[in-house]
Amino acid sequence: MTDQTFEALIMIGRPASGKSEITDYLLHLPADERLRSYHIGDLDVIDDFPMLWTWFEEDAILSEILGQPRLHSDENNYFKHQYLWNLLIERIGMEYHKRLHDDSHYHDYTTTLVEFSRGNEHGGYRDAFGHLPDDLLDRAGVIYVNVSFEESLRKNRRRFNPERPYSILEHGLPDEKMERLYREVDWEDFRAGDPHFLPVRGMHIPYVVFENEDDVTTNTPDLLAARLDDVLNRLMKLKNE
Q1: What confidence score (pLDDT) does residue 172 get?
Q2: 185: domain range?
Q3: Into how many domains does the chain fold?
Q4: How far apart are CA 114 and CA 96, in angstroms?
């Protein structure tokens, strides 16, 4: 790929902020349009939600079927240990390294998209980024999808489908979990030192903010396309500075 194509993107923000809808939009674009308009090659998504959901399913099997202690979460599906949030980030890095190991030409045609949310209650973004590997960070640009807690809560309620709680686009959290886990986030503190670059272990990772309080990611593909074009073109300029 050329210096006008992203090798890796890290998309973060509160639950239901619009991250998964942006990813879904990109995945369904023709490859040539995605590359031309958004500087993105073949899209390979690494999202920590399926990993987290597997832990909840395993704990349900252990406690409800096998009569054994739960490994990861309590009976209310809160993690037993805060370090498990960072274990998920380490797993993201491991999955990324598997790709590189299995295909020495992986980034010749592939853009990796990493997606996750973090609140202050479980360590925040500064802590999470400290567990991402150097070779991923060195290639990455960051997109923060910005919505208020109230908007995150509204969309979380709206998207939840109790018939498909495992779905990337239809999962949700109870209000009390949203309040505890995601009302407070450290994004503004994390980025406070620089309007364009995040400091991580001496590296400077370019970032942009995708403003989505007006919810362009729900049923307005033209507005989503225009805003994404602006955001990714700004990020590409920062990446090439």
Answers
A1: 61
A2: 8-239
A3: 1
A4: 9
